[in-house]
Amino acid sequence: MMAFAHPEAFLLVPLWGMAAWLCPGARLLKPLRVAVVLLLVLAWANPFVDRSTPGLDVWVMADGSLSARDSVQPRLAEIESVLLETKGAEDRLFFVDFADEAILRDPLSQAVLEGRLDSTRIGSALQHTLSLLQSHRNSRLLLLSDGYATDSLELAGERLLREGVPLDIRLMRPESVVDVSVDDIIAPLRVRLGDPFLLEAKLSGPTGTTANVTLVRDGQEMDEQEVRFRRGEARAQWTVRLSRAGAARFDVRVEAEQDAFAANNRQTHWVEAAGPARVLVLSAYRDDPVAGLLRESGLEVELVTDTGSLTEGSLAGVNMVWIHNVHAADLPSAFLNTLPFYVREQGGGLIMVGGKASFGSGGYFESAVDELLPVSMELREEDRKLSVAVGIVMDRSGSMNAGTPSGMSKMQLANEGAARAIELLGEMDSVTVFAVDTEPHQILPLSQAGRDRERLTSVVRRIQSAGGGIYVFNGLSAVWKELQNAPQARRHIILFSDAADSEQPGGVDGLLREMLANQTTVSVIALGNKFDRDAPFLEQIATDGQGRIFYNEDADSLPGVFAQETVSITRSAFLEEAVGVESSTGWREVAAVPLDWPGQVDGYNLSYLREGASESLRSTDQYEAPMLAHWQRGAGKVGAFTAPLGGPFSETMRAWAQTGDLVRSLNRWAMRGELPPGLSLRLERIGEALRVQLYANEDWQERFALHPPRLITQSSEEEEPQRHEWRRIVPGQLQLDLPLRSSERVQGVIRIGSRVLPFGPVNGLAGAEWAFDPEPLRQLRVLSAQSGGQERVDLAGIWDS
Hints:
This protein has 801 residues and is α/β, with parallel strands linked by helices.
């Protein structure tokens, strides 16, 4: 129907007629003059066709961030019920969930809120919701939140007012909030080895109350002290020194009798100590011969057998890494995932040595280091000797519905992992899959993997989460009953379960004994970490089942974990018989002096030379497999020696007179070189930014003309390394400020030609979500009033607006 934006314009018509009557001499009724006036009136009135449909669309924006969800989420069902009961026949109701990102809630879709929850981006959520509005409908927004935005409301506010959409708000917070928090840790990011420095924690809390503050270094409690808050603040101080080169992680946590929010009770700060070049040897052997040979050459060697203690900071100050017969499941994912950046960008060296827990047998296929190695670890079908029956038990409890940063739910990622496992099985292998909540549900009966593989994976990818918890005994019992029908003598079960929600431990131990007696082993992929409630139960299953346990906090990497375990069981091989070896020309790339190689080795990991890699030694059996391969990966170098140098099947290599020459030559070839003097790096965290300052003497300034320094960083929240442009302050000083978001971890390197200057890790401050700054709340109230909205107590009244 026709409508007018400014109907008041038609008041000019009677006024014009009156003027024509009172002043006939003006001749205002001449046709041309009347036509001009009517056109001016119509232009002012702005006629348009109103295409809007009856009724009102209400878009409810529900805050799902950590600081608000305990106040908002429990009341959502009641709010939805009130709005549905009171809306008219022509009205419509929509829900948008948001935290760091926003998503339209769709009952027909499995999509869930993704991204970080430690952020309340109201501005971004407003922009997203406004983009969903339909132009032919009248719309109104209703924000359910604590109101403490962690992003700017400026751009979203301008759009909201420009489009004329009212914003109502319903603020939800506990009526009485007594909260203590760790706001900041003040300490240097880089220190000299052995120099003492002050580490200070800045805390907030109600005046007059007391709290206990604990300092934790690399997971070990160092000190605890009591503080009393005055004027809402308190400080705790410690004098610390680092006696070993590398990065140390300091955590400060606070505890009080009354505390509304536990998530703001901890901050993390990394301190890096520069020192002499180190070699890190990760080994299954306490008397590892590689470590001993390197120490004899005068190098500083750190031998680590308790690999579970490694962190993302363990590579700081390390110029070379050896991995000697350590299973990938025994390396924390935070450490394993930093190795590609360490090698490719920071120029670190990496050598993997053979053994039953190395290469494919050690679960490194499709791990973070797979693409770094110069050998391919997946066994070719024609080289397999035995087939295996695999049973997969899938947790489909309610927790599997949760979203991940990739946009997929945990259930979808686990399904993809199970499908990947089926894809990697051999033609003659068998597989069965059960999904379990309180009862087991057969998804795939025992089937030969090589027959209709595409259909099998399609069925597995459609598993849905059904709520409840996971009853482990029921799942294992069902899959074991099915596996007993398998023609294969070797059988293996992969149990995927939530480490915080795995029930029914009774009877599992007896069931595992029965399985082992029939050549059936069990491994566990646990979603979570070893500190979760049910982690000890799952660890016991892996131990008693003579399998492995993989802890996985990053659900996005689940497909890779399934692939690693499947290959280590079905498509990898450690050959336990002596085999002859012969040299190749590749050794000239490593050392100028040739070696008098032994005539044989006692066993080795079967693998295949990758295209582009060099080979120094190969087997003389039918496989002609690489025994020693190496290549350049980015700024670093990587080698693979597929025979053991320690433990079983290493007698010949340990007795060989030139084993020391081999180890030292490989270490010298791959080890990262030291920078000449004349460069200085300073790091400083300023608010939510990391300031990187590079100082250079005159000699280096001349080199910069030929090789400008490049700054490369790898964030824990980004998949690919980022390259940055410097800002020249004065001659010899370059500076760059990098955004450092809450809880983000950054590692970096400055590359000057072939030289590297690594640094990190550096943590962002966790706290924007818990700062409760009143200014964003004030801005939100002003914006609501300007848009025609209100702080709405009576929710049912929104339909009358």
